[in-house]
Amino acid sequence: MKEMSQLRTLFLENLKSRISEKEPASLYDPVHYILGLGGKRLRPLLTLMSAQMYGTTIDKAMDAAIAVEVFHNFTLLHDDIMDDADLRRGEETVHVKWDLNTGILSGDAMLIMAYRLFNSYDPQTFYDLNQVFSRTALEVCEGQQYDVDFETRDDVTILEYINMIKLKTSVLVGCALQMGAIIAGVDKKEQDLIYSYGLHLGLAFQLMDDYLDAFGDPATFGKEVGGDIRENKKTFLYLKSLEDEGCATELKEWFAMDHTEMNEEQIETKKETVKVFFEESGGAAATQEAIKSYTNKALDIIEQLSIDDDSKKQLTAFSLDLMSRIS
Question: What architecture is domain 4-323?
Answer without folding.
Answer: Orthogonal Bundle (1.10)
